Amino acid sequence: MYHAPIAPEACPALVLNADYRPLSYFPLSLWCWQDAVKAVFLDRVNIVSEYDRVVHSSSAEFKLPSVVSLKTYVKPSRNPAFTRFNVFLRDRFECQYCGDGDDLTFDHVIPRSKGGQTTWGNVVAACSPCNLTKGGKLPKEAGMFPKNWPEIPSVNKLHSNGRLFPPNYLHESWMDYLYWDAELDP
Predict the structure, then answer these.
(1) CB 74: neighbour CB atoms within 10 A?
(2) What are the tens digits of pLDDT across the range 98-122?
């Protein structure tokens, strides 16, 4: 039986910090095979695990790394960046008014037209229909209150929430370094 070779593009490398923890869970810290190979040759990473896939140059062949660890520890940020993505992650990708996960936007709990600012403490994930319904009203005026009042999340909270959303593809060599719930295993 013929097995087509795996394309190198299908071989991303999981990137671990020097303490062997992923740099991030969501999005999962992955490098394309080219970046991983370049980091190996620049002596910036250690190869922890490899794919069976080999790439060739004119003078050498090289097994693609599946897991690499940085040689220098990168201190994780203590304060997460305020981004649309991180707001959605904090709110677990669901509307804070109705719980729907489709067509998410972000809503200013205290509308900008009433002095509300675009900060962790005033923005929540909201589906488009709820955001349109609430409009420029205060929660009491609209009769709509977020199920979780907005707050600044810790980096650990975002990592914890990220573990709730494992990527579609997890290579077996990564599993010793990832900490998703056991019930996610087939």
Answers:
(1) 11
(2) 999 999 999 999 999 999 999 999 9
Amino acid at 79: N
Report residue 131 as tokens: 């955001």
Stated as kind and residue range, the H or E segment containing 64 is strand 61-70
Q: Which helix (H) or strand (E) holds 66?
A: strand 61-70
Gap between the Cα atoms of 26 and 45, Å rounded: 21
What is the C-alpha separation between 182 and 186, in angstroms, rounded?
9
